[in-house]
Amino acid sequence: MMHVGAPLSAPFSLGASSPRARRRASLLPKLTRRRSIMASMGDDPIREWILTEGKATQITRISPIGGGCINHASRYDTDSGSFFVKTNRRIGPSMFEAESLGLSAMYATQSIRVPMPYKVGPLPTGGSFIIMEFIEFGPSRGSQSVLGRKLAEMHQAGKSSKGFGFDIDNTIGSTPQINSWSSDWIEFFSEHRLGYQLKLALDQYGDSAIYEKGQRLMKNLQPLFEGVVIEPCLLHGDLWSGNISSDKNGDPVILDPACYYGHPEAEFGMSWCAGFGGAFYSSYFEVMPKQPGFEKRRDLYMLYHYLNHYNLFGSGYRSSAMSIIDDYLRMLEV
Question: Is residue 238 annotated as part of the catalytic site, yes or no?
Fold first, then answer.
């Protein structure tokens, strides 16, 4: 029996000359580095995900990527490939959660290419992040014809049994976009698209003129949809030139969605800054046939985005929005 305080026998010695001690001493720098890495990963959830669930063992480079005015975008290069990361230091995860749901819904249609979302979460110092697939873009936006066909295939494949709306509210730019479900498209578009933007203009600018005229228009939209079968289709929701690209193979890629299920013609509401040409529309309508009165409704869907730009960027867009409202009031004689 060993008495407390009795000296240890030589084979169990932990002195400096012990082989075990030497091995332990040689491991200390590695253990220290590992603890340091684990601690830094805990402070950086982006790095933590990439080095665990992302299957990487090393991040080789982080490069900023130019983009929108709302979020900061970066490319993370690793030994298991590259990731695209967006961060926002002011807004919590809800915005990126909505984007992730939209990307996942579009991805599930297996039609047009979109980046696959991987992870959304909060940042320790406030704000949020989203990690997604990095897509290497080609030198151009690709073929207008292919873009039109692929977009139509997405609209054709992405259906909803719940009606018009989406499972979560999202944003159009930085403006909240309400997606509460409705069985009636005209009601949904009037209340959650035009009505929301008109009320925002009234609250923000005191613009009672555009609000009152817009309300008159909202109550008289039915004649624009006579003879039209409206089936809820999955929409990108914010399709302008900055959200359209192509991959290295020339196949179209669409980004930064504001998804919801709606009338497919609403997808063209940003056509005034999307650059859609004749080849785009010809290919689109080969898959999704043009419905009666399409031309009469085009400006109606543009109005939503002009109003949003008015609310986001100021009075430079007011005249375009008011002109569309006035034209419709004359056309509908209300």
Answer: yes
